[in-house]
Amino acid sequence: MLFDEDIAFVTNLITKNILDKAQYERLLKILKENQNKTCTEVLIEEFGISDNLIKKEIATYYNIPEVVLSDAHITLKENLISSVTCTKYRIIPVNVMGTELTVAFINPPYKNLLELLKQEAKKVIVPVVISHTNFKDLLKIFNKVEQAKITSKINLEQYDARKVSKDKILEAHKLGRLPSIETLLDEIIIQSINANAHDIHFETLENELRIRIDKDGVLERLVSFPKEFIEFFGNVIKTKGGLNTFERKKPQEGAYTVEFGDKEIDIRIITLPTLHGERIALRLFLKKATIKPIEDLGFLQKDLENMLYLLNKPFGLILVTGPASSGKSTTLYAMVSELNNPQKNIITVEDPVEFKLDFATQIKIDADTSLNFTETMKAILKQRPNVIMLSEIRDADTGTIAAEAALNGNLVLSTMLADSAIGAIPRLSHLGIPAHWLAPTLLGIINQKLVRKICPLCKEEYIPSSEELRRVGIQDTSIELKFYRGKGCSNCGGTGYSGRTIIYEILVVDEELKNIIYQDSSARKLKETAVSGGFKNIRYNAVKKILIGEITTSEVIRALG
Ligand SMILES: [Zn+2]
Fold first, then answer.
1. In angstroms, what is the span from residue 486 Cα to ligand 1's centroid?
2. From the CA of 461, how far away is ligand 1's center (Å)?
3. How many Cα atoms occupy the beta-carbon half-sphere of 224 within 13 Å?
4. Which domains does the chain have, with CATH numbers?
5. What is the strand order of the sheet 387-390 is part of?
6. Contact 140, 376 (CB under 8 A)
7. In this predicted complex, what is the ipTM?
8. What's the pLDDT tens digit per position in 257-285?
């Protein structure tokens, strides 16, 4: 595209001997023929004129400020200018001050465009100019923020009865070569939620079981199975919802809850008999996920102080460890929220983005492709963040970059699979992170597991047997202790449990331990040093929670053995 201002601006470049006449002619030709290219893109990409020189020339010629922007400068919350306009004219709306909207340009601030933006945003437009590199770095960061999705586990298409013969699918099911009906059902629910659908319809037609999802009143086919599958899905769904699996002639209603990661979904079931067989509708209610404040995670007072002590450090690496589904990311998000403060530039790198944070720049990344990951991390470090949250250290690449970022003065928070806090240290070494990087940066490691809490409405005291005391590691059985359990009531559905909490250990790395890590010592030596520095292990803290009546011994034994 070509504007009058381009011609004026480029003519000025000729008088300054930055561009020659022949280049000028070629530029006009390219811009006239190519509606997708802008003037400065051709100057930089085709003629090799420096990015910064162009920026300076635009600033001088139009008398507007030249700036360098980080994502932290871009505070605009509302969508004042459509993304189509932004993409087309290569602009980024920056912030609003009263009646003025600052907009970053990489091309001359065209008069007609300023007028168009003014009408669209209903604000006076204040143009500033940034370099192309700056512009591209910002786009890289913004484009990667996406809505949180649940990770899909299987590809339903390969079992679609409209793509594969029904006999083959039935045969595969009989031979146990198909994923279980529970797994298929989970996948159908996951894909519906990811598509923002709130209803799933299992419809028995003459020749197939058709599964459609409802997206804002529009039904869309997701997958089809052989007709026989209505019975399989029906049995699983009815069992989950507490319905009569043999009843197919009368309508029934029920409900159940599923969890995928940190997402909890209430599902309401309605079954209806029809001419060709049963019809089942599932209505999905996504429970709004909220970030817990750090005080509500389940740390005891003294340990909460330890957590806050760690988070107050200006730089270094803090790790949350534990097995899969141990609430690590809940703790991680709580920690990042605790750090939220207007002076801090917080960037998160997640796979997937689980919560939307309004105070941080969130980048969704596919950590399986290390090239993409390393490149993105480089772009992030250029943004000079203070705090980086990395959803997981899972390999040498993620581990090395986390340590490097911490070494360069960032506070880095991440999670890692590990059996114990101390056990995470040799794991980091095995990932190839050198001891002389780890020793100066590692601040602390939390290890945690999730256990069920005693229902407060039916909690009762009891005197534990000496065997029970020994099972949780209390050797001196002569002291008379009181433990607690839930009798079972309507609040907890007779289970005696209600809600969950963490059991945990926190390793705060002190000077002694730093020295040992530096020497790359054995796990035994690390443990000795930690204990002499006051480290209390997960079992010790779990017993404390038993004694205050928060959890039961059976839950601790289940979690810790
Ligand atoms: Zn109860």
1. 6
2. 14
3. 18
4. 4-143 (3.30.300.160), 156-286 (3.30.450.90), 294-451+501-538 (3.40.50.300)
5. 361-364, 346-350, 387-390, 411-417, 316-322, 442-454, 497-508
6. yes
7. 0.99
8. 888 866 778 888 999 988 888 999 998 88
